From TrEMBL:
Alphabetized UniProt keyword annotations: Endoplasmic reticulum, Glycosyltransferase, Magnesium, Membrane, Metal-binding, Transferase, Transmembrane, Transmembrane helix
Membrane topology: Multi-pass membrane protein
Function in brief: UDP-N-acetylglucosamine--dolichyl-phosphate N-acetylglucosaminephosphotransferase that operates in the biosynthetic pathway of dolichol-linked oligosaccharides, the glycan precursors employed in protein asparagine (N)-glycosylation. The assembly of dolichol-linked oligosaccharides begins on the cytosolic side of the endoplasmic reticulum membrane and finishes in its lumen. The sequential addition of sugars to dolichol pyrophosphate produces dolichol-linked oligosaccharides containing fourteen sugars, including two GlcNAcs, nine mannoses and three glucoses.
Protein name per the record: UDP-N-acetylglucosamine--dolichyl-phosphate N-acetylglucosaminephosphotransferase
UniProt keyword annotation of Magnesium present: yes
Superkingdom in the source lineage: Eukaryota
Reactions performed catalytically: a di-trans,poly-cis-dolichyl phosphate + UDP-N-acetyl-alpha-D-glucosamine = an N-acetyl-alpha-D-glucosaminyl-diphospho-di-trans,poly-cis-dolichol + UMP
EC numbers: 2.7.8.15
Annotated transmembrane regions: 6-27, 56-77, 97-116, 128-144, 185-204, 211-230, 242-261, 273-291, 297-317, 408-431
Species lineage: Eukaryota, Fungi, Dikarya, Ascomycota, Saccharomycotina
Family note: Belongs to the glycosyltransferase 4 family.
GO molecular function, one term: glycosyltransferase activity
Organism: Saccharomycodes ludwigii
Length: 440
């Protein structure tokens, strides 16, 4: 790695370290102010249900944005001062400033949305799509600066496809083959920016998990960025991944400090503010770094949690306000929490659709949920809430809160490493090409 590559990494590491120390210093000094203005929550998985300051994620998020402001004159100083070094292609030329500022704008917007959610407890269906608005600056800059909306078709699919079609002059276009998704690609990137923040927020409810999964994602993203920066075979991919590495190193710094206070037993809650903010940093990296498909690959545990949650999120199965595991005061362990299928949270009788019953029984047979049956008529009374957290408890039996968090983070880390291998080894074999190496 040359000095030119090292400079932005050194700057972001110093920024990340300052962000870490500032967050570590500030949280204990201001968290009681949050309680005073009503920003607190009860730690539901403890015996005495202590009152804990909430929305503390606003502190690392604000520090992160301030660090981004400070980065601008340092990272872009050569172009700002018009220092001309034609032989050296540096990573932060003036045209990149637009990308950088669009990320700042997007992250400021999501910070506002997160704080609004923590203040007013917005309804799930109202807040779900809002991150897409925050992502508009990113998508506009992507359109102007890069604008690539094509996806590569794996050669084997192309070959299968060509065997079924008569050969025409159009079929002998040289390989590789692409499909231009046009506006569909922008819709897809909008979906990534909706998904990343929300998916972190719904894989939550255990001390340390929201920040822990952010830290694991940071490590996975950094390994991937590092592979490109050290081994990338073209300059364009190195440039894309440098922007991502700079943002992620700083996110890692502030998140490590937040984790210090949020880990079991939590002294602060991060709030939806942090979940949205962290998710949006990853979406920014994926979109501006031109690897939004790989970004989703790194979110596999969150994707599983989301798909598994769909029946509850979209009302096929009742969804209680909290789906976090149930704390048992007698043994201090967490058990899978349940959704009552006969009575709702207001105490009214409910009936779930026959199709939902069939689906629940199928999931039960596959050991993907646990059902409680009425002893007299065999009717299904309740099901375990459909979250990855509860599923792990269904499979492993009750666990202490910190052990449960560690187990989920370990699974996430292993899946993340496998995703990197899949992306660069299996992906390279399928596409016969990767930006790290070419398969002949
Ligand atoms: C999401 C989940 C919800 C889960 C909640 C936990 C969906 C659709 N929503 O809702 O099921 O219960 O996150 O964050 O899946 N809390 C703890 N311990 C923790 C973290 C949070 O007890 O380690 C409790 C506190 O009472 C805190 C509250 O959860 O005040 C925060 O919940 P909130 O973030 O507002 O829930 P949602 O994000 O709406
Ligand atoms: Mg939340």
């Amino acid at each position: 790695m040359d000095a030119n590559t090292g400079f932005p990494l050194i700057v972001s590491t110093i920024s990340g370290a300052i962000g870490y120390l500032a967050t570590l210093w500030l949280i204990p000094r201001v968290s009681q102010q949050f309680v005073k203005i009503g920003l607190f929550g009860k730690d539901l998985s403890k015996r005495d249900k202590p009152i804990i300051p909430e929305t503390i994620g606003a502190i690392p998020a604000t520090i992160f944005i301030l660090m981004m402001f400070c980065d601008i004159p340092i990272l872009f100083y050569k172009d700002l001062l018009s220092i001309k070094e034609p032989a050296v292609v540096h990573f932060f030329p003036h045209r990149k400033l637009c990308e950088f500022l669009s990320a700042v704008l997007c992250l400021e917007s999501i910070l506002l949305l997160g704080i609004a959610d923590d203040l007013f407890d917005l309804r799930w269906r109202h807040k779900f799509f809002l991150p897409a608005f925050a992502a508009i600056p990113l998508l506009v800059v992507y359109y102007v600066d890069f604008g690539v909306t094509t996806v590569t078709i794996p050669p084997f699919i192309y070959k299968i496809f060509s065997t079924f079609k008569p050969t025409t002059s159009a079929m002998i276009t040289p390989f590789p083959q692409f499909i231009d998704l046009k506006w569909g690609y922008y819709a897809y990137m909008g979906c990534v920016s909706i998904f990343c923040p929300n998916s972190i927020n719904i894989l939550a409810g255990v001390n340390g998990l929201e920040v822990g999964q952010t830290i694991v994602l940071c490590i996975i993203f950094l390994i991937n960025d590092g592979l490109f920066l050290i081994n990338g075979i073209n300059e364009a991919s190195k440039h894309s991944h440098m922007m991502s590495a700079v943002l992620i190193i700083q996110l890692l710094g502030v998140s490590l400090a937040l984790y210090h206070y949020n880990k079991f037993p939590a002294k602060v809650f991060v709030g939806d503010t942090f979940c949205y903010f962290a998710g949006m940093v990853f979406a920014c990296c994926g979109i501006l770094g031109h690897f939004s498909k790989t970004t989703l690959l790194f979110f596999l545990p969150q994707i599983f949690n989301f798909i598994y949650s769909v029946p509850q999120l979209f009302g096929l199965v009742p969804c209680p306000r909290h789906r976090m595991p149930k704390f048992n005061e007698n043994d201090g362990l967490l058990y899978p929490s349940r959704a009552n299928l006969l009575i709702n949270e207001k105490g009214e009788a409910i009936r779930i659709k026959p199709i939902a019953k069939v689906m629940l029984k199928l999931l039960y047979l596959l050991r993907l949920i646990d059902l409680e049956f009425d002893e007299k008529n065999g009717e299904v009374k309740s099901c375990t809430n459909m979250t990855l957290i509860n599923l792990i408890l269904v499979w492993s039996g009750p666990l202490r809160e910190d052990k449960l968090c560690q187990r989920i983070l370990l699974i996430q880390f292993i899946i993340g490493l496998l995703a990197i291998v899949t992306r660069h080894v299996i992906g390279a074999f399928i596409f016969k090409h990767d930006n790290l190496w070419t398969i002949i």
